[in-house]
Amino acid sequence: MVSRLVDVTPVVPADQLVAQMVPPTMFDDVSFDSYIPDPAQPSQAAAVKACREFAETVAARRAPRKGFFGRRPKVVQGTGIYLDGGFGVGKTHLLTSIYHDCPAPKAFGTFVELTHVVGALGFNRAVEELSGHSVLCIDEFELDDPGDTMLVSRLLAELTAAGVSVAATSNTLPEQLGEGRFAAKDFMREIRKMSGIFDSIRVDGPDYRHRNLPPAPEPMADEALAADAAAVPGATLDDFDELCQHLATLHPSKYNRLVDGVNRVCLSGVKPLPDQSIALRLVVLADRLYDAGIPVRNSGMKLDAIFTDEMVAGGYRKKYLRATSRLLALSRFDSVGG
């Protein structure tokens, strides 16, 4: 019998929330050397150089130091780097390479994951758990929620004062790429208390997930989808509406455990989502599926129809475009990891 995600209610102990902040497994083997800059985009080669130097600086700053007369050395404020660019230009590859090159302890997570960890642990506990790290890598830094932005800005101020360095990425919408560094300016404004420690690095280029790739695949028939799920060990098969309802019962910090060990996610009856709260939960799930490289198959409507035009035109546009990009990439995967 094929398993269902709606039957899984994962439990994640609080003390494991920070420990699980590591890069997605699909990035286990990436490095600065494996990033191949596009010759037509000189900013990419420059970004590799800047990120490599940042990681070297973090490692040097965390090397053992002795204070005068046996006293503890003074804590040096952490440094920062911010990668600004569009979808699919390799920013996560570079961010993960930074993580791999920095000494432990260290942490890696998306902006959303970080806010979920702080929410689950409480602010003071989160600071305590992260303050001994060499680096905190934050993927997909988001500026569309003032409350979350203020929370993370305060957190980063505490951590950098404790000597933690910070590397972050964010997305500029494709149509804004030629309009100047708006995302970088927004980022610096929102973290103005410590913007002086951040070097902003531009990474230009087209979305590699969409280069020479066909549009969203046609949905499968329900019978074919069920047969596909039954034929793949570790596959799950869920009704789209039921899964969306189940996601509402789980804290988003548990979504990665929800899909742990899953080799394919099959969704029947996919259709446009009715409201923003459901859509944002699905964005988080799409991120976790993409992190794990789990293929997605579906019946109903195409995967690029999940987020309505009205949603995409609103304040969470970047999230919905990213989720759509990732779901389409997963729909072309044949097995876990692509």
Automatic annotation (TrEMBL):
InterPro entries: ATPase_AFG1-like, P-loop_NTPase
Protein name: Cell division protein ZapE
Gene Ontology biological process terms in this record: cell division
Source species of the chain: Dietzia aurantiaca
Keywords assigned by UniProt, alphabetized: ATP-binding, Cell cycle, Cell division, Nucleotide-binding
Keyword tRNA-binding: no
